[in-house]
Amino acid sequence: MKGMPPETCGMSRLDSAVGSMKDQDRPAGRERTVRCIDPRAMLITTFIYIAVVTSFEKFDLLGLLPLVIYPLFIMELNNLSPGAIGRKLLYVSPCALMIGIFNPLFDNRVVLHLGSLAVSGGWISFTVLMVKFVLTASAALILAAICGFDTLCVALEKLKMPKVFVSQLLFMHRYIFLTADEASRMVRAHSVRSFRRKGMKIKVFGSLCGQLLLRTLDRALRIRHAMVSRGFRGDVPLIRELKAGKGDTAFVFLWTAFFIIARCFNLPQLLGAFVMDKFA
Amino acid sequence: MSHHIVEVKDLEYVYPDGTPALKDLSFTILHGESVGLVGANGAGKSTLLLHLNGCLFPQSGTVRIGHFPITRKNINDVRRRVGMVFQDPDDQLFMPRVFDDVAFGPLNLGMPREEVKSRVIEALRLVSAEHLAYRPPYKISGGEKRAAAIATVLSMSPDLLVLDEPSSGLDPKSRRQLIGLLKNFNHTKIIATHDLDLVMDLCERTIVINAGRVTADGPTMKIFRNEALLEANRLEKPLRMQGCPADH
Amino acid sequence: MHMADALISPAVGGALWTATAGLTAWSAKKLNEDFDDRKVPLMGALGAFVFAAQMINFTIPATGSSGHLGGGMALAVLLGPYAAFLTMASILTIQSLFFADGGLLALGCNIFNLGFFPCFIAYPLIYKKIAGENPSAGKIFAGATLASLAGLQLGAFGVVVETVASGISDLPFSTFLLLMQPIHGAIGIVEGLVTAAVITFVWKARPEVLLLAEKSSAEGFSIKAVFVGLIAAAVITGGIFSWFASVHPDGLEWALFHASGKEEFRNPEESAHSLLAGIQEKTAVMPDYGFKNSRTVQEDATASEEQWPAVSIGTSTAGIVGGGLTLFFAGLVGFLLRLIGRSRQASPGR
């Protein structure tokens, strides 16, 4: 559960969250390089990447390092701002931090000496955990930022996800903006009249949420009217042609090959040994 | 072309909580007519509109579109012929991109993809919104949303256009553009609104509803000059007819 | 409560992904069986509502911390279990994609913890039993409070089991359990009350909405029990299997270990190690530098046996040199790409 400090209570989070979601959905006018990468290819590559990253042993910091290249590469190729992704990671990092921080407490066997500095296994596994967190979480954010939500949904449908699930993913994404705007307005109206209090009393929260819920129900009914008026009978049709070409297959295979090589061989170790062999 | 008429006869509707919404409501609309539907808040306008394409079914009385009363069997045919534009375009535009929204109706009707595409392009051209096709609905302005919402029904080539409060929430310029747009359509139109100036511009005929009944039905100018009638139905003369204070 | 990918092993993540995918397909099937065109827009809109409501925080009295609406139970009561499960799954998917709140591999775990337990356990076994055939505001309130508390407790338990089974965290099972359950007990009571308040609010204003959910969950319960049992069995076996896999190197990891020929790989490391010793003697910049197995505190022989094979950091200076070079190259690649990107952006503008 996310324990929020009181000063970030209320709307700042909602506003910024929705803002960042809108930003992510940049107009298609500005073409990006990997726009042409099939979303299924991106999806599969991302999953393989995450599976490989998480499969590293808990102390294998070194072996993990070459995998930094994937998110860096994709981000730069697509002009994604590492800063924006970093800020999001920072926001959700407490969850991983809170559990990871126990490692140094429970595992204090010294496994490494850097000069006079003794490093315990716990600190190393903690570092590995945080590196894994940054890599996996940024891979997910990159996936969403590159493909765009609707294209990803089409990819999911093509990958045999149930249709109902995909349709209401689409609807939810569409109506998050409106509902969040509505919620924003209600909370703002509350906060301008609650002068000294920080946060919101439970009682107020209950009725505010109830009101928001009733509005949501009304909206759902109106949307349903608009849908049946245009012949809705359970299917939400989307025209999107996905053409996976040789480039997409190559994209998946080359990256996967790299991930597997990086998983099987400790590349930094090899590199270091090679360099020291040459120059020693 | 008498098959384009709308005939509402003795329509009654009571809400589940027991509130009566419509009572003995009857009128007929002929092909090519443009009719303004006016009345106070809660008079029953929106409930009536929901009956016109079978979102609600009459509890008693009939609604005919063309020659057939609306039944659960012919509902899809009715819905294709009646293009319903709801008050809040955010309810009408529920898909990820404007293009998908405009294509939603034709695709549900089972049209082939190529035809759907050409229909979408044509519908967007009619409302001068081709440039919006690949934009998500939450990133376009109020006026653009309204135009896109209208395109979502035009793509089904309806015989009858039903618009609920088309000018609400629009800035004056967008409202003017909307009126210009609607003027160009030859469709039979029913426009429910509080904007009586818009009715003056677009509708030769007006139906006044109060407490679920038709209280007046006739030429727009005649009704709008009848101040007693307007007053009794919680309406006001259009601003344009109120005259400039300097004239007095 | 949203688990990150970094906390779980692929085995645990995969097992729960399988279970969740099965549940999703099954829920979608059940939903299509008695299709109601009201449901799809309702699910989307309510999902958006829960999403927004979860970002509004209220202050928990006398603690200074804050809580928010627990989504799963509210959705189950409003939509019935199948639609609620799908909606919860969508919310978590969007949260993981756009906010990295909960990882993609961990999505299975998160959907299971926050969707399965409230929708398929707490809702039918607690809420329905208390609210009964003729619900009243009081029964609904009590049922919703208890059910969301129970759902959250089960979810927290799920987090503990999945984390410990993954073996990434060093938190012992009992300690973690003693940390998580009471915290989520306290949060659960408050969340339960809030959820109940919101649901009774709707019950009073729009009873027909709750009846829509009733309708869908009434029938087909025995089949459901069977399916739930099957999936639970799958999960438990998966969980046990992966627990072994991650604790002992002779499970899945062991297979990877061998397939990759990593054992042969120890040799160059060792040669590098001896090389390192030579360099150290020559340079003596960092005399006490390297892998000191002997100086570790060996409190527990078996525990160390489990973990030593996994230690591969700092086996030699070569590792550190190589690591530095790798990061340097990665940075270089990024930098070059950025330069290329800039020049490409600049050229069409001219």
What does this structure look like?
The complex is a heterotrimer of chains A (280), B (248) and C (350). Chain A is mainly α and 280 residues long. Chain A has twelve helices and two strands, in the order ααααααββαααααα. Chain A has a two-stranded antiparallel ribbon with strand order 1-2. In chain A, α1 packs across α9 and α8 packs antiparallel against α9. The N and C termini of chain A lie far apart (52 Å). Chain B is α/β, with parallel strands linked by helices and 248 residues long. Chain B has one domain: Rossmann fold (3-Layer(aba) Sandwich). In chain B, α5 packs across α6. The mean pLDDT of chain B is 88. Chain C is globular, with a radius of gyration of 26 Å. In chain C, α1 packs antiparallel against α9 and α7 packs across α8. Chain C is mostly helical and 350 residues long. Chain C has two domains: 248 residues, Arp2/3 complex 21 kDa subunit ARPC3; 68 residues. The chains are: A mainly alpha (280), B alpha/beta (248), C mainly alpha (350). Chains in contact: A-B, A-C. Chains A and C meet through α1, α2, α3, α4 and α5 of A and α1, α2, β1, β2 and α4 of C.
Attribute tags:
heterotrimer, A: 280 residues, mainly alpha, 2 domains, two-stranded antiparallel ribbon, 12 helices, flat, B: 248 residues, alpha/beta, Rossmann fold, six-stranded mixed beta sheet, four-stranded antiparallel beta sheet, 11 helices, 10 strands, 38% helix, 24% strand, globular
Please estimate the helix content of chain A: 55-70%
Mean pLDDT of chain B equals: 88
Strand percent estimate of chain B: 15-25%
Give the strand order of the largest sheet of chain A, numbering strands 1, 2, ... along the chain: 1-2
User: Would you report the number of β strands of chain B?
Assistant: 10
Shape of chain A: flat
H/E order of the elements of chain B? Answer: EEEHEEHEHHHHEHEHEEHHH
The main pleated sheet of chain A reads as: 2 strands, antiparallel
Helix-and-strand structural type of chain A: mainly alpha
Return the CATH architecture of chain B: 3-Layer(aba) Sandwich
User: What would the average pLDDT of chain A be, to the nearest integer?
Assistant: 79
Class from helix and strand fractions of chain B? alpha/beta
Oligomer: heterotrimer
Low-pLDDT stretches of chain B are none
Strand order of the largest sheet of chain B: 6-7-8-3-9-10
